[in-house]
């Protein structure tokens, strides 16, 4: 190899290095927001799943509390109170909450099986995540039933 050929190789290697200048900044400008969006989606999924579990637990608490009462009116009051307490204890902050307790089973005659059904609906605020295209709230609903003792006195 002559000295002239070696010189040409050096120039071409230097020009290749110069062509890649700034590529890291461009990759970072594209990659960092995409990674941030990915992390936000993971947080969103976690928050929604935790909220679902909390609402389901509140519905089960409401149904169970209502089923051990003696009257239909007391059952409805106890169910609503238990659901509110459960959501509060779990730290779930709903923008609006709806608790419906169906205590019609208290009208069944003694010796017949009956149940109480509770439905809890919670609107969870997601606007603080600031993900484009994401609605500000998500509605989560859960329903649970609990049997009423067939031979327990009802009023």
TrEMBL record:
Alphabetically ordered keywords of this record: Membrane, Transmembrane, Transmembrane helix
Domain TadE-like, residue spans: 22-64
InterPro entries: TadE-like_dom
TM segment ranges: 21-44
Protein origin, superkingdom: Bacteria
Entry protein name: TadE-like domain-containing protein
């Amino acid at each position: 190899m002559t000295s002239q050929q070696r010189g040409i190789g050096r120039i071409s290697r230097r020009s290749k290095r110069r062509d890649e200048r700034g590529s890291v900044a461009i990759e970072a400008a594209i990659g960092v927001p995409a990674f941030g969006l990915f992390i936000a989606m993971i947080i969103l999924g976690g928050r929604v799943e935790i909220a679902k579990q909390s609402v389901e637990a509140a519905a089960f608490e409401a149904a169970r509390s209502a089923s051990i009462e003696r009257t239909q009116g007391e059952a409805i009051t106890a169910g609503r109170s238990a659901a509110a307490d459960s959501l509060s204890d779990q730290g779930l902050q709903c923008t609006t909450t709806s608790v419906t307790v169906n205590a019609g089973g208290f009208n069944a005659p003694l010796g017949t099986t009956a149940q109480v059904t509770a439905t809890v609906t919670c609107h969870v605020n997601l606007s603080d995540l600031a993900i484009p295209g994401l609605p500000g709230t998500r509605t989560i609903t859960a329903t649970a039933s609990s049997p009423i003792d067939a031979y327990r006195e009802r009023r």
